[in-house]
Amino acid sequence: MSDLFDRVTTQQDALKKLLAKIPGFKGYIERSDRRSADKLLRETISDKYQQQWQRLSSIQRDLVNAGKIEVIDDIEIAAVRLRQFIDRIKTAAYGYSGFFDAVKINEAELEKIYQFDLALMTMVDEISNAIDNLEVSIDTDGFPAAVRNLNQKAQDCVDSFNKRSELMKFGQ
Description:
Helix 1 (2-10) crosses helix 3 (25-65) and helix 4 (72-91) runs parallel beside helix 6 (143-170). It is elongated and about 60 Å long. It has one domain (2-170). By secondary structure, it is mainly alpha-helical. The two termini are 20 Å apart. The protein has six helices and no strands.
């Protein structure tokens, strides 16, 4: 996660670098850079999950076109959870505690947030694998288990983001 922060800080313009030399202003810039890095990170995460949601939607369309409507409801649960997760990532407030924010995030808490972010990035692979498994198990006895697995993975994403949000709110 520090790669994103480093990328944002190395792209500072001359004025920002000059202002960083003003006593007390450097901390404000660092918080601003963290907000920019957080925004970039969450856009990246949401894009990766959006690709998986589109894959799942495509599978649903194929099932409908093949007349297998009876299985759509079960798959729709995962699709709705993923959509909810993506929307929450996109619309949540950016940053790790602004200059005037009531809740301040310290370095230890920031490290926990980065761990959640890393988990969210790796969970996209779990979702992808679950969708792969779902796709190959259509018309097999393993299909119900593949649907349950996908639904659980989608719920895990929502739960992880909820935990991250709680940490951001309360700095626990």
